[in-house]
Amino acid sequence: MSATAANTYDIVILGGGSGGYACALRAAELGLSVALVEKGKLGGTCLHMGCIPTKALLHAAEVADTARDGAQFGVKTTFESVDMSGVNAYKDGVIGRLYKGLQGLVKSKSIEYVEGEGRLVAKNTVEVAGRQLVGKNVVLATGSYAKSLPGLDITGRIMTSEQALFLDFVPPRVVVLGGGVIGVEFASVFKSFGSEVTIIEALPRLVAAEDEAISKQLERSFRKRKINFKTGVKFSGVTQTGDVVSVSLESGEPIEADLLLVAVGRGPVTAGLGYEEAGVTVDRGFVLANERCQTNIEGIYAVGDIVPGLQLAHRGFAQGIFVAEQIAGLNPPVIDEMGIPRVTYCDPEIASIGYTETQAKAKFGEIETYDYNLGGNGKSQILATTGFIKLVRQKDGPVVGVHMIGARMGEQVGEAQLIYNWEALPSDVAQLIHAHPTQNEALGEAHLALAGKPLHAHA
Ligand SMILES: Cc1cc2nc3c(=O)[nH]c(=O)nc-3n(C[C@H](O)[C@H](O)[C@H](O)COP(=O)(O)OP(=O)(O)OC[C@H]3O[C@@H](n4cnc5c(N)ncnc54)[C@H](O)[C@@H]3O)c2cc1C
Asked: Phi first, then psi: what are they for 141, rounded to 5°?
């Protein structure tokens, strides 16, 4: 299965982000001929404007907090200030090395990398600068952009994450509009860098997609960190005078700040790309695809943020790999959206998989839950973090949800996802030995308790 003629491929992929490039790499591994079209930088949002830069900022934030808090551990440290040029150099260094590696990887796989803006001009054809790339299959992977609200212009000190990643100063006062994943991560960074932060969230709680108990604990921790937040409150407008923004709320309350970060979600990049003209069903901008990532048009697939569901890089990777294998005839198993791990990297970190308590009740009827408090976990005490691991299981059945909050809990999601995806019973996990003293042990202890034999916990 290789290219039959110039500009004809087994797969033409539009968009070189997480979904698109993962598809290209796997397809090339499987011997398919591939053209990968990218108008910006290979790696897309995740590498250049999303996961990697934000996690670098969050790590710099952790370093700042460590410097502040040394005395707690008997170490004499002082926090002086955050030098944004240094932070950006560190962040850009990380991105640069990964970018170079990814470019090398794509080159080494004999993928035809086509730079430029592509458009679907027929069911099997993508056009880039007058050049027609014909695919036996076409994969749409054009990703997402930071949304704003109607009438809220992104300009000056009113920014989305796309501008906030390049700040060369630490704003003294920040209002974050939106208490979802991106909002709370930036709020956490700004607070650690020394800003006074207020989050505005219209829904009744922060990180509203998570289990309610997690939201409550995050709110408790943010209160302790003196990160202000207002939930159940609607934004009504903002004015900008020089470098000052005045945010008003429907409650009538004004908040003055030096930066308004708009973090109200991400919309699909699909407009004007020829999708609808080619007959692809699009709903509110999103491309609809079935569980095998097929659109309604035979031979056209869609992956990543343009498909409704979790907007996460590893979902994009998984869908990209899936589509390559599907096209190669490997009949890969369908991806369970609930089995995709979710991590929010604020301090404290949140990590979860599967169903929340409310979702599990609705889906399975009778359930049991158990909260293991990190207070009983040696390593968490050493790190001076608080939080818990909440397990949700079907009554007398497998674990269907794991919800964790506390420093570094993102690192625990690997085992949690095995537990969920392998439909483990609490007793299956209870017999596995978890190293002491690790935070991972807390996951073991939670299952010991749910299996009816608690160790460092009350039943
Ligand atoms: C601030 C922030 C933090 C995030 N943190 C995380 C995180 O920690 N973990 C996580 O899993 N996810 C995170 N995400 C989400 C993650 O970045 C996305 O889910 C992921 O990038 C989606 O991959 P994608 O391939 O669908 O789209 P994208 O990565 O957006 O890639 C789409 C690509 O298509 C290109 N393109 C678009 N139109 C065209 C065209 N017409 N022609 C050619 N090329 C085109 C774009 O230039 C882009 O490179 C974060 C996102 C943001 C914004």
From this structure: -150, 50
